[in-house]
Amino acid sequence: LGNTIILDNGASSLKIGKVDSQISIYPNSIFRSKSERRKNFVSNQIDGCKDYSSLFYVLPFQKGYLVNWDVQRQVWDHVFGKDVLNLKCNESNIVITEPHFNFGSIQEAMNEIFFEEYEFQSILRTNASTLSSHKYNNDNPGEECCVVVDCGYSFTHIVPYHKNVKVSEAVCRIDVGGKLLTNHLKEVISYRQLQVMDETYVMNQVKEDACYVSMDFNGDMETCKLKGKDNIVLRDYVLPDYTQIKRGYIKVGYTTPTKSQEQMIRLTVERFAVPEILFHPSDVGIPQMGLAEAIMHSVSKCSEDTQPHMLRNIVLTGGSCKFLNFKQRLEEDLRRLAPDHLDICLTMPENPVTYACEGGLRWTKTNTIREHWLTLEEYQEGGQAACARQFYDI
């Protein structure tokens, strides 16, 4: 299976891995820029855009599921095409990820596009967390269980595995992901300081640069009430103007605004209140469990003899895990909820975004993957029924 690519098809970005090469990340979107009206930027063409203000996003995913096929096809065509990967699809195999609880109609359309239009030699359709589980088990021989926590763009999924097989009845979903956090930050800043509802791109950078997970929420709230230099949470964020300042940044030290051309927003409570939604979705009116409760709930649905092993092997993946203190806070919350005699151990990979893709590349080098492939001939013979049989719950 030499010519195999892994396509971790996320709602925010495509992570693509080829055997023996670096994993690449491309935006899964088409952008329209206010300053360059007539031009569409497909995926990584956005790097050539000069002005990221008021970027309009056209996304193939809505609420975590692939619904806009025209946009997704344009992104795939661009990424597979000669400008980016220069992929000969009819000589390649592909492992492609899909969200949990995906709809049958979406699965059928994917099978059709990859077999009939791109004509890949063989396909394996699975979930990103399954690929993560393979990587984790490879890195930790002797462990048969793990819980993959995938904090993605649209959702957060908690998926337990036993011997690389998903425990389907224990899969848990929280309707909070990176998109909701960025949108909430936009609303708070627009309400308090500056109208930024159209500035998704910039506010996403603000979230990544300035937000962190609080280890003492009430203490941090008290700190935010202090004036001047005593308020150690306060940060001034200089917004880009795309002439002098190409990317926003946090201003060092406590300052009073001086240069009039610098447009700044002052961040205090938002810095930790936005990521807090992952731990308490009810803060923004989502009547669901927070991360720690959801993990305990998910583990409780697994067979009793595997539960201690599950709690000892929790692996954190997805872009929203990258907040400062994320792992420590989750560990603390879990420790409070779990029985005292059970160990809790969380693993934060070096790069939680590409972890699933790395797992896919590792899996393609083993023999166990062979039984999961579906070839073009088998598809032509058995059609959608063959896909439904082959990709059932892997």
Automatic annotation (TrEMBL):
| Nucleus recorded as keyword | yes
Task: List the GO terms this entry assigns under cellular component, sorted alphabetically.
Answer: cytoskeleton; nucleus
Q: Record's CDD domains?
A: ASKHA_NBD_Arp6
What are the record keywords, sorted?
Answer: Cytoplasm, Cytoskeleton, Nucleus
Keyword Lyase found? no
Provide the protein's localization: Cytoplasm, Cytoskeleton; Nucleus
The similarity annotation says: Belongs to the actin family. ARP6 subfamily.
Q: Which PANTHER family match?
A: ACTIN
- This one is known as Actin-related protein 6
